[in-house]
Amino acid sequence: MSALARRLTALFHRSALAAAVISVAAAVSVAAATVLLLHVAAPAAARPASHGRVVVSLPASPGSYLGAYVKGVPASYAPMRSLAATTGTQPNLDLYYSGWGEEFRAGFAAQAARHGAVPLVQIDPDPVSLAVIADGGYDAYLRKYAQAVAGYGARTGGAVIIGFAHEPNGDWYSWGYHHTSPATFVAAWRHIVTVFRQQGADNVTWLWTVNIVDQKSGIPSPAAWWPGRSYVTWVGIDGYYLKPAWRFAPLFGPTIKAIRHLTLDDPILISETAATPKAGKPAKIADLFAGIRAYGLLGFVWFDVDKNQDWRLAGPAAIAAFRHGAQNLSLARPPGSAS
């Protein structure tokens, strides 16, 4: 994405840690008289959201998710198939970025489900005002989006992971640090979750995504942007390996600790990561898998793009490390998926 590219470029120029992506989640509270629970075994029993709530929860065991973002999605699913063939793995999280005003890509979500994966959508609110979002100025768009997500869940029994305004504790986005106040971010986040719930779209896992903390580069703890446990399902952390000496614990550990002060038990996903060729991809991939196990995290999403840096899984050693690490995970089967 062009926004991500601008952010990465800015970070490299200032020798900061590269990182990425979003955030945010919500626990579902539903009246028993109106709840419609979708089961993997019987998605055909689902009804449209207008006739009841669409509730789908994702498994959240440690080491149960392996994801990727590949250039060319969600316009085509072919890049995801190509990555799976190249690595000999089958990711079960398919990330794509959605600009504000774009519709939910139900077709891509359905293809992901047919390949045993769940879509992870990062919604970027650029160039709109978070204050206007919080005040209801975009409710028509949000309702339409929520209805599409609920409709997808009702038809398929499938879940969707949604992040909004990712990496707010960084200063490279209009909604982030120094540009939009944390209070406004929180108000917008809560409003969006509320609108989705009102439309019966409780098949959403809300991913609150923050950037790794780096005090030297002025990237603070994400605590000020925390929407509260009632509005978050999973927490995402974005961070990249830039140098050979970097390891999982010092790179991600301080942010994990900060998050654990906010929420003791919300599952954590490394929601965007990769390594530069200079850092040594095979070693960093092995370190990444080891860190996921050591900290009991959900898994990670690999940013498989050649832009500013070549983050792609390329070369026999890197691919072998990725394949070997994936073999040691117990990947979840998302609700509504075909395999």
Which keywords apply here?
33% helix; alpha/beta; 339 residues; TIM Barrel; 8-stranded parallel β-barrel
- As a whole number of angstroms, the C-alpha radius of gyration is 19 Å
Helix-strand makeup class: alpha/beta
* Beginning-to-end CA distance, first to last residue: 30 Å
Oligomer: single chain
Estimate the global geometry from the Cα principal axes. globular
Describe this structure in words.
The protein has an eight-stranded parallel β-barrel with strand order 3-4-5-6-8-9-10-11, surrounded by six helices. Strands 1-2-7 form a three-stranded parallel beta sheet. Strands 12-13 form a two-stranded antiparallel ribbon. The protein contains nine helices and 13 strands. The chain is 33% helix and 18% strand. A hairpin with a 1-residue loop joins strand 12 (306-307) and strand 13 (309-310). The model is unreliable at 1-51 (pLDDT under 50). It has a single domain (2-327), classed as TIM Barrel, CATH 3.20.20. The longest helix is centred in the middle third of the chain and has 18 residues, at 139-156. Helix 5 packs across helix 6 (182-198) and helix 8 runs parallel beside helix 9. With 339 residues, it is α/β, with parallel strands linked by helices.
